[in-house]
Amino acid sequence: MAAGLREGLPAPCCPCGCAWYFRPTASIREELRTTGHAVRLETAGAEVGVVSVERAVTDWSARYFGQWWKAVEVEPQSVCAGPLVLAEIDPGAYGEAALAVTQAPHTSAVCAKAQLLVTRCEESGVVRAVSPDQALAYRSEPAGAILPPPRHPAMSRPCPARPIRWPGPVGIPTMACPQRKDPPVSRPRPVRAAVFSAGSWGTAAAKILADAGSDVIVHARRSEVADGINTRHRNPDYFPDVDLPASLTATTDPAAALEGADYLVLSVPAQTLRANLAVWAPHIGPDTVIVSLMKGIETDTGLRASQVVAQVTGVPADRIAVLSGPNLAREIMAGRPAAATVACPDEDVARRFQQACRTSYFRPYTSTDVIGCELGGAVKNVIALAVGIAAGMGLGDNAAAVLITRGLAETTRLAVRMGARPATPAGLSGMGDLVATCSSPLSRNRTFGAHLGQGMTVAEATAATRQTTEGVKSATAILDLARVHGVEMPITEVMAALLQGKIALDEAAAALMQRPPRPER
Predict the structure, then answer these.
(1) Do 212 and 331 share a structural domain?
(2) What pLDDT score was predicted for residue 56?
(3) Which of 78, 373, 416, 486 is the most buried (most CB within 10 A)?
(4) How are beta strands 362-367 and 338-343 bridged, if at all?
(5) Same domain assignment for residues 274 and 395
(6) 377: part of which helix (H) or strand (E)?
(7) Does 73 fall in a domain?
(8) Which residues contact 86 (CB under 8 A, 6 or more apart)?
(9) How far apart are CA 246 and CA 236, in angstroms?
(10) How far apart are CA 224 and CA 235, in angstroms?
(11) Residues 304, 212: contact at Cβ < 8 Å?
């Protein structure tokens, strides 16, 4: 068996073959090399597998760097003392490997891609993963080989260790097994996030962060909302029918919310951001990263949300991030799959927040293109108004497709002229957000436009929608940006004129359809 070990690998693993869940930071990689334990991994509620220590300190720890693994009770397992039969299966997940073994008695299976070895003992019939030294030794054997029982004396008897229970996300336990004395390892503290404020998207973002294992506190303007979150675990204003994670709390005190916060997540109307930040800024910590969820342009200045944040707080750009994508709050609250882009000039900051908000239903990607992400989120609201108007007027799906496609074209022109990468508008924060907002009845901007298309005035549509509709507030500011940068944005121009009462509803469609013909670009 020793012949299967490569030079320089750690000593054989713990005799009892115990496993744990861990957060694979750089320091823990070294700890694994020192102790030589097998490692069982689980992420987002789905078990990934039991891997050898070699794999744990290389591929897995690099791939999931900084990921919190779910903590559960780890039961000691009886160790097989009989001969094993080795068989190969196609690369796949741990569950597939275990299923293959279960359906083929008296065999074991190795997943070549993950270097995973699962065994079924001929004597006991128990299916389990072998220890790292066995896995490394057996890995070089051909399929169908009859393997000897484990040679370590202690592995011929059941493990005497008691179950190890952890209350939540943890680091490596101080005592992984009673049979060995490992040095204590400190547990990394959970990420602390303060979400301002308790609107629909703010509540959804808070749920994502809490489900990802972060310590989350929501700042609510009204005490009734904070009380509802704290006592009934529901937001009575926006999601009275959806349970929030019990770990999520709320307060009306901005200083209390921001105390010790690693992240300040901002979800407030773009036009009130400046005034709110002026009040909150004194409580923001020197190392707090500010994450903007806003999708609007400040009307008086033409500034994007991240620019307003930097101007008011003095926080450098590399500590300001943006989260943007097709994120309909109601669907996220229901746990339906979604994705978004985390953009920050500092890629490490973007990656850290990516890990802080990654769940089984929410998949974040990273980018350094803040300009492209913010403009995609802002302009799509204006285009969604136009699509909603077309729907309200009964103009059909062809008209909607034209508006979405040409809306993406004018978004891209403006973004690239302002310094964005051309590919960004084609991503989640551009086309992805545009499609969701223009297509879904859950979209506030599309709904507002539909009200206009059905004959309501702007005031009546505002009253009917009841929530902030960023496209209405930002249309003129976006058009001003386009003019400053010499970019033609016909849909935005028509929408701004319609919202300002300069043209009538029937004139809007004609203004777009009667433009001079030109090449598509």
Answers:
(1) yes
(2) 44
(3) 373
(4) parallel
(5) no
(6) helix 370-392
(7) no
(8) 107, 108, 110, 138, 141, 142, 143, 144, 145, 147
(9) 15
(10) 9
(11) no
Strands 39-43, 46-51: pairing kind = antiparallel
Residues 418 and 499 placed together within one structural domain of the fold: yes
pLDDT, tens digit, for every residue of 229-276?
999 999 999 999 999 998 899 999 999 999 999 999 999 999 999 999
Task: List the one residue out of 165, 168, 171 whose CA is nearest residue 23.
Answer: 171
Which residues participate in the annotated binding site for NADPH? Answer: 200-201, 221-222, 238, 295, 329, 444, 470
Looking from the CA of 200 toward its CB, the CA atoms found within 13 Å total: 17
User: Looking at the 3D structure of the chain, how many domains does it have?
Assistant: 3
> Quick check: pTM over 0.70?
no
Helices (H), 171-217: 200-211
pLDDT digits (tens, 9 = 90+) for 411-461: 999 999 999 999 999 999 999 999 999 999 999 999 999 999 999 999 999
What pLDDT, on a 0 to 100 scale, did the predictor assign at position 188? 55
User: Which residues fall in the annotated binding site for sn-glycerol 3-phosphate?
Assistant: 295, 325, 380, 433, 443-445
Tokens of 469: 């509709």
Q: In whole angstroms, give the CA distance from residue 164 to residue 177.
A: 9
- Residues involved in catalysis: 380
Separation of CA 347 from chain center: 15
Tokens describing residue 324: 């943007």
Type of residue found at 92: G
The answer to whether residues 312 and 435 belong to one domain is no
- The rounded distance, in Å, linking the Cα atoms of 477 and 382 is 11
